[in-house]
Amino acid sequence: MKVLITGAHGKVGRAVTQAMLDAGHEVMTTDLSQPGFERKLPGAPQYMKADLTDAGQAFAVVRGAEAVVHVAAIPEPTGHPAHVVFQNNLMGTFNILEAAVRFGVKRFVYISSETVPGFFFPERDFLPDYAPVDEEHPVHPQDPYALSKHFGEQLMDAAVARSDIQCISIRPSWVQFEGNYELNLGPQVRDSSVLSPGLWSYVDVYDLADAIVLATESDLPGHELFYIASPDNVGGHDFAQILSENYGDQIQLRGLDRPDASGISSAKARKLLGWQPKRSWRDYLDAEGNALRN
């Protein structure tokens, strides 16, 4: 397929671009980086700079695409004023999806967020109802980032209701790559009492890219939602034990696939997309949370 990837120069966008090329797709990319005038290697993706909050620019980059992977977004709510996060993320999604509908794009993959349930950046703290968290968990987003991602998922519902487009929303867990495992996950490997809202969950960026390729190639009808998280928790701890030790009976424990399960379940993605993650924090860190230098 001819696939457009937005936010192609970010952490996830770079990995997805390479995974799409490796899968044999023709790739078009867009981001806010200034393009350079250089000779391109054979098969290199086409690049066009575009601000997707501008409808005209969004339509310009979608033209000719058969599938769209929408990664572009401000990735968290604390580094920009709230109205900037909300406006950028929501209008960028609206414009690129509107263009996809009008041009007859058949497949749209939207990168949403694990923050949508609302227990990541809340002004008034609350906990998940149960764990591992799955796609059926209620959502109560409070912050502008989670709200923008939740409304983006609703835009997908509206798009499939009014056109023949097929949409998949992906909620990745905390995305890691070889350069940040030690900094981000090292403390949790050493000590399970170091908490994160995702209940010791994470996902490797290259496993996430594989899931996005599968979603793009899928023929699932309508709009489907998937969590994408590694099956094990950070540190390989006994999940039932650390959940009880740190939260008591505040979070209901549901069935686990394995003793060291993640706090977020990707069972639906494994079943419907055939996603099989290949990487773990153990490939990057030792039992003390230090980077494996090889």
TrEMBL record:
<dbReference type="InterPro" id="IPR036291">
    <property type="entry name" value="NAD(P)-bd_dom_sf"/>
</dbReference>
<dbReference type="Pfam" id="PF01370">
    <property type="entry name" value="Epimerase"/>
</dbReference>
<dbReference type="InterPro" id="IPR050177">
    <property type="entry name" value="Lipid_A_modif_metabolic_enz"/>
</dbReference>
<protein>
    <submittedName>
        <fullName>NAD(P)-dependent oxidoreductase</fullName>
    </submittedName>
</protein>
<dbReference type="InterPro" id="IPR001509">
    <property type="entry name" value="Epimerase_deHydtase"/>
</dbReference>
<feature type="domain" description="NAD-dependent epimerase/dehydratase">
    <location>
        <begin position="3"/>
        <end position="216"/>
    </location>
</feature>
